[in-house]
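haha ok so turns out i had the wrong file open the whole time. this is the CORRECT one, sorry everyone. sequence first:
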Amino acid sequence: MEVLKVSAQSSPKSVAGALAAVLREKGSAEVQAVGAGAVNQAIKAIAIARGFVAPNGIDLVSIPAFAEISIDGEERTAIRFIVEPR
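then structure:
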């Protein structure tokens, strides 16, 4: 599954475009964010992507989950959103 990493500085519209492209190509995607700002941008991107793919008859759902990841040798908790059609 394709993993899109989102930061607090990510543009929601750009992430949404990438997410919509991955969804059309592979059928599902995973959006990963660490920190409150990144989670905020990720949620905005998912909402925008839903609007991008809706005209194609695709209704998106998002499943949130926690994930332990390593950043610079340090363990961090990330939020992962599995995005797939309903």
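The longest strand covers residues 60-71.
again sry for the mixup
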